[in-house]
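Worked example (supplementary).
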Amino acid sequence: VGAHISHPIYQQSMAQRLALEAAVCTDCGDVTFPPRDSCPSCGASDWEPTTLSGEGEVYSYTVITPGGAPPEFAEQAKRTGEFAVAVVELEEGVRITAQLTNVDPADVEVGMPVSSTIRRLYVEEGVVRYGFKFEPSEAD
Amino acid sequence: VSANTDADTTDAGTDAGSDVSAAGADVVDYAAYLPPYRLPADAYDAWNGSRARIDEKRVPGFDEDVVTMGIEAASTLDRDGDWHAGIETLALASTNWPQPGTAASGPLVTALGLPTDVRAIECGTSWRAGLEALELAVDGPAALAVIADHPTADPADDVDHLLGAGAVAVRTGRSDDPVARRLDSRHYTSAHVPGRFVDPDGGRVVDLSIGQYDTDAYAEAVGGVVEPLLEANGYEPADVAQAVLPQEDVKIAWRAGSRLGFDAEQMRAGFVVNRAGFAGAAASPLGMAAAFDAASPGDLVVVASYGHGHGATAVLFEVGEGVERTGAGVSDQLDGGHELSYTDYLKQQGAI
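After joint prediction of all chains, the assembly is encoded as:
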């Protein structure tokens, strides 16, 4: 399955990928990530940017085996074997899907406290792409 | 921890206690990052044993590079509130840039939320680059130095046994409560055929294995900065609490240290190469962070770095009371991490 993300699309999401920039609705206060034009909770269209804490816990997860990795992560899977991808629920209530790093997939558990960390995601047309992953909070 | 920096404090002009340049900045906070994987020396038993005279080295994960390691180190600084107010300069250093030809400071500025009008300067031709960035940061008035490196070699080359990785972040500014204050520094630069260099095809470190030649070059450059630095400030080697010398060769570093008049006690705390491996431009800064961790207010710390080709820089710090409110936890980080097998190391590096 191809999952190609073009350079302009990646560029548009740079602040989200590197600094966890989210939107807080000025009407109902709900936090949305990634930011959207209108609040999914109340439909209001006014929001302000906010930076998420990056602290949360594993809400759910799966383990990707090398054969199942999306093409941009094929090299990673070849070099390091299977890896975990989790839905992380942040302190702000937002749920984010991201890879887990610095952890053996066999040690991942639902409810495990995790923190965001910036990592190399993959290389696209020779360009290194960075973005957030999560790691066990006690890792640092 | 509160950094307790007051960027608006005006310098009263006289400070009876020390020799501080009015234009300089103090170290107000510092942090270090060691990547999670450890490769013990006995992993090299497959090669008739390690040639590096170290116990183990650190290896970055597949998804790490000097940009991510630098972000990790800087993220560990105290970043409460308006932490970056007043930071005018971002000084980066490395010899293994992930995307040559582009500004490595770009992702760092965005990830750390630094102002986009920060003066970003990137140092990185020799392993002295870390101290070059540090010198810029303590020139002031307020700066962030981020030094991260991961020199690599062909695994078939003995020099690979030594090469590790790590990152250090140092924030500087005016403070009544500094972690450390630069008293003075000395530099030496001259043409010299390098015993080690980075191969432009592939970016791997090449070691010509000319031991005595390298020893002499190192002694000339490092001795040429450390001795006058101490003399000019009226100190003897015995007055120094911690001496952090360039650590790209364990034997050369210890021999040079003892020739300069330092004993094992003065060199031990900052000798992180023994467990982190040689982290290139970040090696001496990591040693400095470990030395600050072990230091007490009033201690003198000398940090020196060597660049093949060649040149050296040595900086003399006086540790302040601020060292008791913060720390980089280098020793604890060295005790953490996950052990990597030699085959997993080769596979992760793309060597097999």
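Two points are worth noting when inspecting this output. The longest helix of chain B spans residues 211-232. The two ends of chain B are 45 Å apart (CA to CA).
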